[in-house]
């Protein structure tokens, strides 16, 4: 199919948690519905319950937040609030802490 709607319908989700060494607080559960994976490009939907963990981006990621509230706090002290309706681009080299304050649902496109 050359055009496809981003939806969770009919897709078996992958359920994970942050690696223990990256966990900062809580017990966040990540649910991912992968829609596409080809030639270093990944697209789908991702949801996390509250908690915080360390992130270190080696890839480029575009996100659009559908529900919830998260905060990204960079190692440089920067703080970005992610809320429903927001779109963000995260570039390789970004590192810090991703904290989910309210269960967050986003769609994503990742390029490695």
SSE-based structural type = mainly beta
Largest sheet: 9 strands, antiparallel
As a percent range, the share of strand residues is over 45%
Roughly what is the average pLDDT, rounded to an integer?
96
Estimate the helix proportion, in percent. Answer: under 10%
Tell me the Rg in angstroms. Answer: 14 Å
Low-confidence sequence ranges: none
Can you count the beta strands?
Answer: 9
- Amino-to-carboxy terminus distance: 23 Å
Q: Using the alpha-carbon principal axes, give the shape.
A: globular
| Order of helical and strand elements | EEEEEEEEE
Helix-strand layout with pairing:
Elements: E1 14-16, E2 23-26, E3 30-38, E4 41-48, E5 51-56, E6 60-74, E7 79-83, E8 87-90, E9 95-111
Antiparallel strand pairs: 1-3, 2-5, 3-4, 4-9, 5-9, 6-7, 6-8, 6-9
């Amino acid at each position: 199919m050359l055009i496809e709607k981003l939806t969770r319908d009919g897709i078996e989700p992958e359920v994970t948690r942050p690696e223990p060494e990256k966990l900062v607080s809580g017990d966040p559960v990540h649910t991912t519905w992968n829609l596409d994976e080809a030639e270093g490009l990944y697209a789908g939907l991702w949801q996390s319950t509250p908690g915080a963990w360390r992130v270190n981006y080696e890839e480029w990621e575009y996100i659009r937040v559908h529900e919830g509230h998260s905060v990204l706090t960079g190692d440089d002290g920067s703080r970005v609030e992610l809320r429903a309706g927001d779109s963000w681009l995260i570039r390789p080299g970004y590192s810090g802490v991703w904290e989910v304050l309210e269960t967050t649902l986003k769609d994503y496109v990742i390029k490695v």
